[in-house]
Amino acid sequence: MPAEPGCYLMRDADDRILYIGKAKVLRQRVRSYFQSGSGHGHSPRIALMVRQVCEIEFIVTDSEAEALALESNLIKNHQPHFNVLLKDDKKYPYLCITWSEAYPRIFITRRRRFRSPLDRFYGPYVDVGLLRRTLGLVKRVFPLRQRPLPLHRDRTCLNYDIGRCPGVCQEKISSDDYHQTLRQVAMVFQGRNEELIDLLREQMERYAERLDFEAAARVRDQLQGLDALTADQKMSLGDSSVSRDVIALASDGRLAAVQLFQMRAGKLVGRLGFTADAVAGQGLAGEGVAEDPGRILQRVVEEHYSQVEPVEIPPELLLQHPLPQQELIGEWLAERRGRKVKLAVPRRQQKAELIELVERNAGYELQRAQRTAEQHQLATEDLAQILEMVRPPRRIEGYDISHIQGSDAVASQVVFVDGLPAKQHYRKYRIRSSSIHAGHSDDFMAMAEVIRRRFRRWAQAKASGVDLGEVRRAAGSALHTGGLNDWPDVVMIDGGKGQLSAVMEALRELNLHEELVVCSLAKQREEVFLPGAKEPLDTEPDQLGVQLLRRLRDEAHRFAVSFHRQQRGERMKRSRLSEIPGLGPKRVRDLLAHFRSIDAIQLASVERIAEAPGMGPALARQVWEYFHPDAEGPSPDGDGESETTADALVGAGAD
C-alpha cells in the first residue's frame, strides 16, 4: 500500500464490498486493521469484518480532503454493509420526492430503501404533525400531483378544476415545467424559504410588467401561503440573515442521541434526530470504552452532509464539541457547498444557549430510548420466566408458513435481538416438497422442512464431534470460525400443538431436540405451548413475555405473506406462452397482440398462427403442438369448428 492519502475498499470472497474508508496515509490505516497486541482491540463489528476481508483495493488522491469527498461518493453508490456507523432513527418519517419519474410524487415515508438513486429524501423529521401540516399547506400553495394513480382514464379529476393539480394524468403540463415547480417546493424543505420568496417576488413583478395579471395573482397567492408557512416560528436569533445548523448530543456511554436543529434566516425550520453507537471498542479488561463525543459528532456531520444537496449545507455549523478533524471537515463542506463553511464551538452568549437547548432535547430523546430499552429487557426477562430459562433470551427466531391452498407455498424466518427486529438476519424459504402444490397443502410438512433446512449445518457440526455449547459461547463474540454464529436462544412456531410436534420430529431427526428451546403460539387464544405438553402454559395475553412473542409472530406472518404475494405476482405475470421453446418476450407480445387472447391461439390452426408477426411455419407448428400434445398431427387449414370459434373469439376481443 502506498504511503499517500486516498480511499480503500475491502472485499470478501464473493467480491462484495464490505467496507469503504479514507486515510491520510493508506499504508498505516490499512495495516492497523491487521495488527494485534495493541491496547485497544477492535469492536466486534470491525473484528467480524476483518475476518471476511479477502482483497483490498485503493484509490490514491492528492489530499485528505479529496479522499473524504471520494469516500462519501463511494459509500452512497455501493452502500457497504459495515459502513453503517450512524443509524437513522426509524421512528421519524422522511419526505420523499421521486425525481426519477417524469411527473415526480411528493409524499411522507418511513422507508428509505429500494428506490431510485435519483429520488431525494428530506429529514428525518421529529415533529410529524408539523411535517404533515407543512406538506398539506405546500399542496394548497403549489399545484402538485395529488394522487399516485389517475382517478379517470381519459379526463382530469376535481383537483385540476379547483387548481390543486396541473393535470398531470392527462399531461396538461410538460414534465420540464412540473420539475421546475417541484424544485421550488424542494426549497421549502431545504429551509430556503427566504430565497424562494425572493424568486417568487421577482417572478410576480415580471408577470405584472407583461400585464399577465392572472399569473401574477397566482404567484401572489403562493407568496401569501409561504408567509403562513413560516408565521408560526417561535425561535429566532438576532442575526436573522445567517443560516446555520446546530448539532449536539447526549450519551450514556452505550448509546448517543444526536439532535440537529436547522436554522434558516434566523428561524427554526426543522429538527432532525439520529442515534449512534457510543462504544468505540474494548479496553484491556474487555469492557466497552466510550467514544469521544467529538468523534460521534464528526460521524454525524460526515454522513448527514454527504447525503444532502450542496444547497442544503448552511454557511455555519454550531457544534457542542470540537471535531477531531474540524479543519478538514470544514474544507470538505466548503468544497461541496462551493462557498466557505464555518464550524464553531460557541462558549457564551446566545449561541451557547442555543447549544444547551439542543443538548437538552437530545437528553430527552436519550431518556426515551433508554425507557424503550428497559421495556424490551423486562419483556425478555418475563419470557425467560415463562419458558423456565436460566437467563433472558437474546436471539429469538419466529417461523410462519404462507400459501393459498398449497400454491406458492413459502416460509419466513424473522429474528429479534434484545427484543428488537434484526432485519439483516431475516430469511425467506420457498417450500420444495413435491407433496405441497396447488390444491394440496400441509403446514406441518412445510414447517418441518424449513426447520430441517435451517439447522442442517448445526446438525452436521454436531455429528462431526463439534461441541455446540462451546461454539455458542464463541458465537456471542462474533469472532469464531465456521459460520456457526446464528444459534437462537428461543425458536417460536406460529401455530398450535400440531405444528410444534412436526417441528420437534424434524429436530429429532437432526439430533437437536435437546439443544433448542422451542415453543409455539396459537392464534385464537394467544396460548403458549411447549413440546410434549397437552395443555398450554398458564400465561396472560397482556403479559410482557407473551406480548413479545405476539410481536414476533405478527412480524413473521407479515414477512411470510409479503413474500408469498411477491411469488404469486411473479407467477401470474408469466404467460403460458413463455413456456414454449423459441418464443421470447417480443414474440409472445406480438402473438397476444395478434390473437388478443391465449384461448384464441389455442383454437387457431397452424396456418393462422403462422400469419402472426415474427412466426414461421416451424414455430407455428411448435405452438400448436404445445396446446394439442395428444393430437397425432396439426389440424388442417379449414377446420370449421376451430376456425369459427377462433374467429369469434378474436372478433369479440376475448381475454
Strand and helix layout:
Layout: E1 6-11, E2 17-23, H1 26-32, H2 44-52, E3 55-60, H3 64-78, E4 86-88, E5 94-97, E6 106-109, E7 120-122, H4 128-141, H5 158-161, H6 175-189, H7 193-209, H8 213-230, E8 244-251, E9 255-264, E10 267-277, E11 279-282, E12 288-290, H9 293-307, E13 316-319, H10 326-337, E14 342-344, H11 349-386, E15 395-404, E16 407-417, E17 420-421, E18 427-430, H12 443-454, H13 456-463, H14 468-475, E19 490-494, H15 497-510, E20 518-521, E21 528-529, H16 544-573, H17 585-595, H18 598-603, H19 606-610, H20 617-627, H21 640-652
Parallel strand pairs: 8-13, 13-14, 15-19, 19-20
Antiparallel strand pairs: 1-2, 1-3, 4-10, 5-6, 5-7, 8-9, 9-10, 11-12, 15-16, 16-17, 16-18, 20-21
Helix pairs in contact: 3-9, 3-10, 4-8, 7-8, 11-16, 12-15
Describe the protein in words:
The relative contact order is 0.06. Helices cover about 45% and strands about 15% of the residues. It has four domains: about 5-85, GIY-YIG endonuclease; about 245-370, Nucleotidyltransferase, domain 5 (2-Layer Sandwich), CATH 3.30.420; about 390-570, Nucleotidyltransferase, domain 5 (2-Layer Sandwich), CATH 3.30.420; about 575-650, DNA polymerase, domain 1, CATH 1.10.150. Residues about 85-90, about 230-240, about 475-480 and about 635-655 have low confidence and may be disordered. It is built from 21 helices and 21 strands. Helix 3 packs across helix 9 (about 295-305), helix 3 packs across helix 10 (about 325-335) and helix 7 (about 195-210) packs antiparallel against helix 8.
